Amino acid sequence: MEVSLKAVIDMVEADGDLRKNRKVALRSAVKRTMALVGNGAADLVIDPRDLRRRLERLSPAQAGLSPASLRNLKSLTWNALKLALPQLAPQRDTTPLAGEWREVAQQLPTRLARPLSRFMRLASRQGWRIAEIGEAHFEHLGAQLEENLTLTRPELLVRRARLAWNEAAASVPGWTGNPVEAPRRRPAGYWVEPGRWHPDLREEVQ
């Protein structure tokens, strides 16, 4: 599944339901993305998975944007992509939890139940038992979420699920699951001298 970013812009322009200011914002975001990941090539054809990876590797300094502006750019670009690729539209998983997964979900506090929701539904569908959960099961979750193009940061969801699972194993009475490998810490930030900042970033933070 591939699409050219130029085609995405054309679909934004052709959408009669979008307000003018929304079109301007989406079009501008896609053009900036084209400049950042495709050297401005209007005919750049890209797989959404590859685009997601490229955008995630971008730092604010590389993009010449503040962190908040870069997050907004990624969000707008992805929303524009959804117009060209309807399969990117979010689909809610309504699979009911069964057996021990339903029981344990009722015991979990909300702060653990939410990050574990996707994993528990997957485990329930697959017929996995809580006591047998290990690395392979969370790797399966990661692979599945990577295929879900409605998600912009699937690795973050897996990280949160691992942390919640380990906390449940340590704190929930009667929990039969074993801890899994703790997610790696996110890389430390780095400093870029202001003189090396992109001109747009210098203007934005002044």
Describe the structure.
This protein has 206 residues and is mainly α. Helices cover 61% and strands 2% of the residues. It has ten helices and two strands. Strands 1-2 form a two-stranded antiparallel sheet. It is elongated, with a radius of gyration of 21 Å. It starts with a strand and ends with a helix. The model has no long low-confidence stretch (mean pLDDT 81).
List descriptors.
206 residues, mainly alpha, two-stranded antiparallel ribbon, 61% helix, elongated
Shape: elongated
Number of strands: 2
Tally the helices: 10
Structural class: mainly alpha
- The overall pLDDT, averaged over residues, is 81
Proportion of strand residues: under 5%
Determine the fraction of residues in helical runs and give it as a percent range. Answer: 55-70%
- Taking pLDDT < 50 over at least 5 consecutive residues as the criterion, the unreliable ranges are none
Order of the strands making up the biggest sheet: 1-2
